Amino acid sequence: MNPSETPTGSGLFRHTARERTWEPAAPTDRDSAEAVERHIQRHFGKIAFVWHEMISDLVHIDVHVVEPTPERPFFTLVTSGMSDLPMTVPDGVGPYAELLICLPPDWPFSADGQNEDEKAHWPIRLLKMVARLPHEYGTWIGVWHSVPNGDPAEPYADGTPFAGVLVAPMINHPEEARTITTAEGKQISLLALVPLHPAEIDLKVTEGTQALLDAFDRITVSELFDPARPSSV
Fold first, then answer.
1. Which of 146, 143, 171, 141 is nearest to 1 (CA)?
2. Burial class of 123 by CB neighbour count within 10 A (0 to 12, 13 to 18, 19+)
3. Rounded CA gap, 167 and 165, in Å?
4. What secondary structure letter does DSSP report for 211?
5. What is the DSSP letter of 231?
6. Helix/strand/coil (H/E/C) assignment for every residue in 73-99
7. H/E element holding 65?
């Protein structure tokens, strides 16, 4: 993995239960939602279906799905709704983001969203969890941040070794695909999720982001998730 961004730190977030109670979702920003749809169709292809969230806490997160084609032989999943609210960011960092992950063409989920098998559904749950996290905790999610699945980190589902995720820039898409611009000029970063093995999470925590990226150079790692990918450590 050799993107242009320079690692700036560990950025480790542990997703634990927050103290405040459930809050109804903020109103959908239609300008942002329409911009996300245009961006997906321009850079990734026709939206085949959308997983609509029925009950939403803080922000309403939908997941748009682009099906595999001969030119793009994989599913592309993109969130919409994370950018309805600004994140709490440091100076110089944009406050809006959405998330993306690409899955193999044989990924066993259903278009009606009724497949509750966690072996198929966990990437969708992961997208929603990370998208909601900065709004839950008054923080931000950006490039090279990581989120373990608990403490200690546990696999997302039976049969998968992946137990955390790295937020990363897309490397298999042109740079212009990394930013969504609304009709009103709002800039939304589109960030990729890269699932991690437990040993990779430990390496990032103990030795830093650059050590993990150096390990990634030994294998192929990108926004296209490979469920059979071995640990780089």
1. 171
2. buried
3. 7
4. H
5. P
6. CCEEEEEECHHHCCCCCCCCCCCCEEE
7. strand 62-66
- Residue 227: asked if its preceding bond is cis (omega within 30°), the reply is no
Query: Taking the CB of residue 6, how many other CB atoms lie within 10 A of it?
Result: 9
Is residue 15 pLDDT above 80, yes or no?
no
Structure tokens at 82: 């994370």
E-strand spans in 81-202? 97-103, 146-148, 164-168, 179-181, 187-196
What pLDDT shows up at residue 11?
63
- Tell me the average pLDDT across 169-178: 95
User: Burial of 38 by CB count in 10 Å (0-12 exposed, 13-18 middle, 19+ buried)?
Assistant: middle
139-to-70, 223, 227 alpha-carbon distances in Å? 39, 23, 30
| pLDDT for residue 5 is more than 60 | no
Tokens of 83: 């950018």
Q: What is the pLDDT of residues 103-136, one digit of tens each?
A: 999 998 765 555 567 788 999 999 999 999 999 9
Residue type, 7: P
Residue ranges per structural domain of the chain: 30-216
Pair of tokens at residue 65: 């799905």
pLDDT-above-70 percentage for the chain: 88
